[in-house]
Specification:
The chain has 124 residues and is α/β, with parallel strands linked by helices. The protein has one domain: 3-Layer(aba) Sandwich (Rossmann fold). 47% of the residues lie in helices and 19% in strands. The chain is built from five helices and five strands, in the order βαβαβαβαβα. Strands 2-1-3-4-5 form a five-stranded parallel β-sheet, with helices on both faces. Helix 3 runs parallel beside helix 4. The protein is globular and about 35 Å long.
Length: 124
């Protein structure tokens, strides 16, 4: 069982992802903001991070950069539906440049999620 940190400001998204990860045999650690997510990643017990790019306050891109710098062994999966100023494609490129291993465009299904988690947990 892998411990997957989910960082998303939308409570419904966190709950759904947590339930799916549990169904796939993983333990979900849920964070509603990037600062709490970075602190959880620093604990050293996280196997992968799933993070929304479009977050209030410290955005997901800055959090990807911080987590990749502080805990480079933890694979990061970015996710986004884009924003008014940044397309999904731009988020994917920016996240990869900052250290994300994979990117999931929202909306995605359970099969996509399971494949991404399997891929990054196998690589780490």
């Amino acid at each position: 069982m892998s411990k997957i940190l989910v960082i998303d400001d939308d409570g419904t998204v966190r709950a759904v992802l947590g339930a799916l990860l549990g169904k796939f045999g993983h333990q979900a650690i849920l964070a509603s903001n990037t600062l709490d997510g970075i602190a959880a990643a620093e604990s050293g017990s996280i196997d992968a991070v799933l993070i929304d790019m479009n977050m209030p306050g410290l955005d997901g891109l800055e959090a990807v950069k911080a987590i990749a710098h502080l805990e480079p062994r933890i694979p990061i999966i970015g996710m986004s539906a884009g924003s008014a100023t940044t397309s999904v494609e731009d988020y994917a490129v920016l996240a990869a440049n900052l250290g994300a291993a994979l990117f999931l465009p929202k909306p995605f299904d359970g099969i996509d999620l399971q494949g991404a988690i399997t891929a990054v947990c196998r690589e780490s």
